[in-house]
Amino acid sequence: MAGRSWSGKVALVTGSAQGIGRATAEVLKARGAKVVLADVQAEVLARTAEALNMPAFRLDVTDPDAWSAVVAEIEDDIGPIEILVNNAGIMRLGPFLANDPDRDDVQLEVNVRGVMHGMRAVLPRMRARGRGHVVNIASTAGRVGTPYAAVYSASKHAVIGVTEAVRQELIDSGVQLSYVCPTPVRTALLTGARELAWPKPIAPEDVAHGVMRCLDRGLVEVYVPRSGRLAAVLPAILPRRVYERIGRLLGVDRIFAEADHAARARYEATYAEAAGGETVG
């Protein structure tokens, strides 16, 4: 496989029992990395770990003590973590005014604080060694407001903001931080949602290769597909009424508003069984 070799480098990937996380783990392994899986879904994680022949840890990303314990064990038994991919996330839909604030809090705990806990667990060690790379999975929803996924959108805006800010704090440390902004991805997270007129849902492997672009080239932000950058560019160059009209033509206002609620209920029930209700974005 073309690209930089990561032979022997330890990479920790959260939310890696399936979807984007699993795809990223497979690509990293193909590049020679020692990949460690982490997910809250114990049974699915165990099957993935066996299939990929990778060490795995059950991890609730909302628990900073769990992060500290897992990172310490990995560094003691496997080696220093050179790469962290913060991928675990959850998406819950519905009109903002009708949502239960407690339901919103769970989403923010996983999507925002989970990322921050991961950064705090690995960055001091990386900074002490003068090397390492954290890649946070954001979303194009973190660049534009996404109706009926308002809190998810807010959480991904936060992921972008914290990555940009902490990167500046560590800019001369030898440690790198990046984020990846996919358009809708064909994972469980998208269960029951409508498709945009354009772009169509992408595969988890596409996002995994976006992660590798960050790692191989030291890029700070990567959009998958590359045309997803329009989510950041158009609001800056077009009048609001124009880019919002474009969004409506593409179906941004309908993708979640007209979701299959029965399918979404099954999705949420499935992941509510796992502590923290966590899944892969």
Order of helices and strands: EHEHEHEEHEHEHEHHHE
- Provide the CATH top-level class: Alpha Beta
Poorly predicted runs are 274-281
Instruction: Tell me the radius of gyration.
Output: 18 Å
CATH architecture: 3-Layer(aba) Sandwich
Strand % is 5-15%
Secondary structure tally, helices: 9
Number of strands: 9
Q: End-to-end distance, in Å?
A: 25 Å
Task: Tell the overall outline.
Answer: globular
As for the CATH topology, it is Rossmann fold
Secondary structure class reads alpha/beta
What does the main sheet amount to?
Answer: 7 strands, parallel
Q: What spatial order of strands do you see in the largest sheet?
A: 3-2-1-4-6-7-8
Q: Average pLDDT, to the nearest integer?
A: 93
Q: Helix content range of the residues, please?
A: 40-55%
Q: What do we call the CATH homologous superfamily?
A: NAD(P)-binding Rossmann-like Domain
For the record, the count of structural domains works out to 1
Please describe what this structure looks like.
With 281 residues, the chain is an alpha/beta fold. The protein has one domain: NAD(P)-binding Rossmann-like Domain (Rossmann fold). It is built from nine helices and nine strands. It has helices at residues 19-30, 42-52, 64-77, 101-129, 150-169, 204-217, 230-237, 240-250, 261-272, and strands spanning 10-14, 34-39, 56-58, 81-86, 88-89, 132-137, 175-182, 221-224, 279-280. A seven-stranded parallel beta sheet has the order 3-2-1-4-6-7-8, with helices on both faces. The protein is globular.
Task: Provide tags for this entry.
281 residues; alpha/beta; Rossmann fold; seven-stranded parallel β-sheet; 9 strands; 15% strand
